[in-house]
Amino acid sequence: MSDKSKSRRAEYQAKQEKKANHIVNWIFGILIALGVLYMIATVLMQA
Questions:
Q1: Which is nearest to 29 in space by CA: 40, 19, 37?
Q2: Which end of the chain is more exposed for a tag (fewer CB within 10 A), N or C?
Q3: From CA 8, how far away is CA 16, in angstroms rounded?
Q4: DSSP output for 1-47
Q5: To the nearest whole number, what is the mean pLDDT of the chain?
Q6: CA 2 to chain CA mean position, Å
Q7: How many other CB atoms sit within 10 Å of the CB of residue 33?
């Protein structure tokens, strides 16, 4: 492969990795928020 092709591939791979990390962070954030909401709901139902 040429150097240009290698650099494009590396650039694309870096971009994809950045997108994947962003999505994983969003998923963890949503799961934490749902956990907090669940704890609040259970406390309110017991009161």
A1: 37
A2: C
A3: 12
A4: --HHHHHHHHHHHHHHHHHHHHHHHHHHHHHHHHHHHHHHHHHHHH-
A5: 95
A6: 33
A7: 10
